[in-house]
Specification:
Elements: H1 2-6, H2 10-32, H3 39-70, H4 76-94, H5 96-104, H6 115-138, H7 145-161, H8 168-201, H9 206-213
Helix pairs in contact: 2-3, 3-4, 3-6, 6-7
């Protein structure tokens, strides 16, 4: 893996893998959705969704596994495998409520008379969020997919039908969570660090103490 990462041809491998993934998405959309209307548009949306998924992997997933890989608790390969399993499991098992909020919590679809406008609002948000994530990744900036897609939906909705389309009560709650989440994350991390220092590093036999706290 290290040899692969240092190889000067790595960018070509990455481009090839990304292209192959998008081709698979296109083929799935064309042959899997051939009985549905607007197949061409759905195939294009699927490609944009695949593009978004790659950017999520490059940025969001990298944020999640970075500490584990950086501390050498996991190898890069192991972290990627774990991310694949648990990211997919989380989306399938517990992602329904979040999808519902994104779909009809930020804006009220009932206020949009023409359903095609709602489709284009969501498509614009998806494409805008994907492009921003791609740009942020290229700049090496860790950003949030949630911020990107929520902001994209809000901006597209305002551009299409005005400020009244946005559910500002829900947006207030979402924005509050963006402030609360890093604070709670920091407090919990500080608590765990205190426990580790108190129960392991401040003991005379640190190795033995570590085995008692985290038996492996």
């Amino acid at each position: 893996m290290n040899i692969y990462m240092k190889n000067p041809n790595t960018k070509f491998y990455k481009l090839g893998i990304g292209t192959f993934f998008l081709v698979i998405v296109i083929l799935f959309a064309i042959f899997g959705l051939d009985d549905m209307p607007h197949t061409t548009f759905l195939a294009f949306v699927a490609v944009v969704g695949g593009y978004m998924a790659m950017n999520i992997g490059a940025n969001d997933v990298a944020n999640n596994v970075g500490p584990a890989v950086g501390s050498k608790a996991l190898t890069l390969t192991g972290a990627i495998i774990i991310a694949i399993i648990f990211e997919a499991s989380g989306a399938l098992i517990a992602g329904g409520d979040v999808v519902s909020t994104i779909k009809k919590g930020i804006i009220d679809p009932k206020l949009i008379v023409d359903t095609s406008i709602f489709i284009w609002v969501m498509f614009s948000a998806l494409l805008g969020g994907a492009i921003w994530l791609n740009l942020a990744t290229a700049l090496g900036a860790p950003v949030s997919t949630t911020h990107s897609i929520v902001g994209g939906i809000m901006g597209a909705a305002i551009a299409s039908s005005g400020w009244g389309l946005v559910n500002w009560g829900m947006m207030t709650k979402i924005a509050a969570s963006w402030v609360i989440s890093p604070v709670l994350g920091g407090l919990i991390a500080a608590l765990f660090l205190y426990i580790i220092q108190d129960r392991i590093f401040h003991k005379d036999e640190t190795l033995e103490a570590a085995r008692k706290i985290v038996p492996i």
